[in-house]
Amino acid sequence: MSLKINLLVCLFIFHLLVAASVRGHKIGIYEIKKGDFSVKITNYGASIISVLLPDKHGKIGDVVLGYDTIEEYKNDTSYFGATLGRVANRIGGAQFTLNGIHYKLVPNEGKNMLHGGPKGFSKVVWKVSKYVKDGPCPYITLTYYSADGEEGFPGAVLASVTYTLKDSYKLSVVFRAKALNKATPINLSHHPYWNIGGHDSGDVLSQVLQIFGSHITLVDKQLIPTGEIAPIKNTPYDFLKPRKVGSRINKLKNGYDINYVLDSTEKMKPVGIVYDKKSGRVMDVQASSPGVQFYTANFVNNTKGKGGFVYQPHSALSLETLVFPDAVNHPNFPSTIVNPGEKYVHSVLYTFSIKK
């Protein structure tokens, strides 16, 4: 009995030390740079705040929406560039049952939970664990300790995200997490608002998109999955062949906000390719996740962004790679449950190029 008590005490002290090591940190902005390719990140929400790279004329442009000040990120409701967790996307009714225990979460979108709740991973200060600004492989690793019961989730979680510039114009993003003492859902993602024509270039409706998924997870009026997986053939959601983002967007109420089931079974799956003719920029996305949420900034409206530019609906698109939304309430979806001792890893690779 005494051995068991000592073990529990040691585990408790370990969790306290972990918690203390990733709390109380100052908010800063960190740049990783390789030639004329630069990414800036803030440890507030482990958020991407700028991605700079040249167009076909060699002109450098910022291709993600965002703000000029950290204070604006604190007040942001659009999740510009943010890391999303403990569970990205929506959980219906802000509740689920796991191992016979019913958990009630903190709702922040009507009766549902979105992106981890009002104090999700996008609204906390992360610890900068490692940082190499430049050189052959610039990177930054940020970590966050999520306490047992945070936003209603069971168990403590230690999460990290590493941003790395690889080769020419490649941005690698790797999310890792450990469940420290209880089984818990973990589904990390992030929310860059991409406009590869430039954050201040207007809407993305003329940009050409291809998504490598032939099915979607159907949703109800509150955008909660019904559990049904449906083919996209002969619907406005069909981007299996490259087509303009705006080619059929008028057939939808507000725009795109839906999860695609990726077709590939490879470890790193083709997700999507975006092409902007005017700038010549191309963005190719690969990920280890089974799904991707395609969103066209439908609810960004008169939002004052960088340099005073005002963002409007459809001023960007997001390709949020993840396990399917509300998976914790749908046994037919891939599982988001991580048990103590198991490692969670989600990798994303963005490759940028020029098409002249």
Protein architecture, described:
β12 and β13 form a beta hairpin. This protein is mainly beta and 356 residues long. It has two helices and 28 strands. The strands form eight sheets. The protein has a nine-stranded antiparallel sheet. The N and C termini lie far apart (71 Å). The longest helix has 20 residues, at 2-21.
Brief overview:
This protein has 356 residues and is mainly beta.
Largest beta-sheet characterization: 9 strands, antiparallel
Shape descriptor: globular
Round the mean pLDDT to the nearest integer and report it. Answer: 94
Helix content: under 10%
The tally of beta strands, per DSSP, is: 28
Taking the alpha carbons of the first and last residues, their distance comes to: 71 Å
Low-confidence stretches: 1-22
From the helix content, strand content and strand pairing, which structural class follows?
mainly beta
Instruction: Output the strand order for the largest sheet.
Output: 10-11-12-13-28-22-21-16-19
Order of helices and strands: HEEEEHEEEEEEEEEEEEEEEEEEEEEEEE
Q: What is the tally of helical segments?
A: 2
User: Radius of gyration, rounded?
Assistant: 20 Å
Strand content: 35-45%
Keywords:
9-stranded antiparallel beta sheet; disordered N terminus; single chain; 356 residues; 2 helices; globular; mainly beta; 7% helix; 28 strands; 5-stranded antiparallel beta sheet
